[in-house]
Amino acid sequence: MSSRLGRPELYTSYRQDMALFNTRAKQIGVLAILLLAILLPLQLEDDLLRIGFTGLVFAIGAIGLNIVTGYAGQVSLGHAFFVGVGAYTAAVMSGDPDGRSLGYGMDFAPLWMLGAGLAAALCGAIIAPIAARLRGLYLAIVTLGLVFIGEYFFAEWTSLSGGDQVGRDAAQPVLFGMELTRDGAYTEEQKLYWLALGTLVVMAVLARNLVRSRVGRAFAAVRDRDVAAGVMGVDLTRTKLVAFTVSSFYAGVAGSLLFALNGHFSPDKFGLLLSIQFIAMVLIGGAATISGAIMGAMLIASLPRIASELPALVPFLSSSATEHPNIFEFEQVMYGVLIIAFLLFEPRGLFGIWMRIRTYWKSFPFSY
Amino acid sequence: MTEFLTAASSGLGLGSIYALLALGFVIIYKSMRVISFAQPAFMMSGAILVSYLVPTVGFVLAVIIGTLGIALLALVVERIAIRPMVGKAVFVIAIITIGVDVVVRVVAGAFVGVDGRVMGDPWGLDATRIGDVTIAHRHLAAFVTAAVIVAALFAFFRFTSLGLAMRAAALDQEAAMAQGINVGTVFAASWALAGGLAAVAGVFAATGGTLDQNLWVIALAALPVIILGGLDSLGGAVVAGLLIGVSQEVVATYHRDLFPGLDSNIGYITPYVLMLLVLLVRPYGLFGTKEIERV
Q1: Within chain A, which residues score under 50 in pLDDT?
Q2: CATH class of A53-363
Q3: Considering only residues 212 to 231 of chain B, which have any Cβ-Cβ distance to chain A shorter than 8 Å?
Q4: Which residue, B76, B75, B78, B74, is CA-closest to B93?
Q5: By a Cβ cutoff of 8 Å, what residues of chain A touch chain B?
Q6: In chain B, what are the domain boundaries?
Q7: ipTM score assigned to the predicted complex
Q8: How does the record classify its membrane topology (chain A) (predicted)?
Q9: How far apart are CA A22 and CA A32, in angstroms?
């Protein structure tokens, strides 16, 4: 036991090498982070919890995009479309049957989350055969087209979406008869944060298991060299289909939760900017890592808050939208700058920075 | 019929804008194998720059200075953000250009102001009537300008040594380098050309209305154009540009009869739908080179 404490990377069996968390240090670390994340809402203010909630939901979507883009190497700019499909499915399933917009009153949260995921996955599976024929940048542009076509039809289908600029009510998060959007013993923000955290943990563990399985290795093979993968017996079309479908499922679940805290959303939310934000999360966090996607999502979710704090520190930034330069412009510029800076200087993202720190201490004091 | 011809004439004007933008995309793609998502930003900043220059130097000179200015901007961007990444995965470079696009667009957008700007072009909303067909002068001007630029561009690739170098690098980069061609110059030239083309396209896109922060969306419609024409075909970009421009305007004109259930005009998404339909049949566009897989 004592030798193990001194050597946190020591594997003692093949079984351990194959395990989900293969070292003791990882097990303890993940457990500690999880415990911290669960206890956090008891300490933090509600406005910070809103950021936390958004980050957790973004993380679900980012893991999804990471599966198709990071692991399977299929560049998708269409993630916003699938998020939109999820958001509308969830809103319709849980919506008020007598309301202005379409609704069926099934307000049990896990039910509409699953429904949203499945609807988005179905859309992904429909798109996938087209996508599987295309490669690289052709695919990127086709998925970009999907965002525009989707945005148009969301806005047109007014009984579904409430119409352009107007919007509709988001899904009602109700869990075992408890309305999570009502303040009770705990506030709305706290309850929704825990709901999002629970969902993220389940989805993250599922994703981690998927990518270290046979399917996940097929993804990586297709990403690294699709011709070689095909020669080795990987069914390319089927692998891409699975990647797209699973990724869309994650996007759908993320979409179903995304506006639960606002309670209201409109079709213009699912535009190109949302797709770019997801790409930014994956790249800033680190492509082809689950924990990286979560880190990237947290950073992107907190950008608006960071930007809004800045006028106090940087005098020439204005908090008013009519003056230039203002914080809203700054926030958008930051997406661009962060993407460029990370790709130029730290291509492996936040996860790469963590890896460097870890390697430094692993070999300390012989860190050369 | 007159309705159709009117739509077709404005479609040719719009298509010329698409063609100019698409040529920029294709030139960069041919030299670097990358799609530059920064074109929309160059297009918008070009239009904004020209709209500021027009009152002082007049329209024609303003367009020339503006075009050169944006070409220079594209050159700087290529040098700072793209050149260090040469040799990395194309996807990574494409994403960097998205980052560049966001930054340049937001910075340029700050100069638009709340109410938008007016281009100050000499045509305004004038139109000529031939029979019953109305042809707006701005569409005519866009078409003629695009025709001149396309002819000049093809002459450039055909008769100048830099054009020859660019064609050689597009064909086989390593072989071109072995023959003493400076690939760095080729990259720089292709970005400058693309930036200049985008600026001209931006000027014509902004005529006939106010220039606002959403101008760049038109540039995104040039993406279906290059897919339709084939990523690596200059001629395809021109043909597909005009084709998509015309079909977009025609669909927009007959929107009420064809799609009675849809309120807002479907012309806006026509390029994307057309692209999807063509890709179902031809995954490499109409004129694109089919990638051959050898094992």
Answers
A1: 1-3
A2: mainly alpha
A3: 220, 223-224, 226-227, 231
A4: B78
A5: 73, 75, 130, 133-138, 140-142, 144-146, 148-149, 152, 155-156, 158, 164, 227, 231, 272, 276, 279, 283, 322, 324-325, 329, 332-333, 335-340, 343-344, 347
A6: 2-219
A7: 0.85
A8: Multi-pass membrane protein
A9: 16
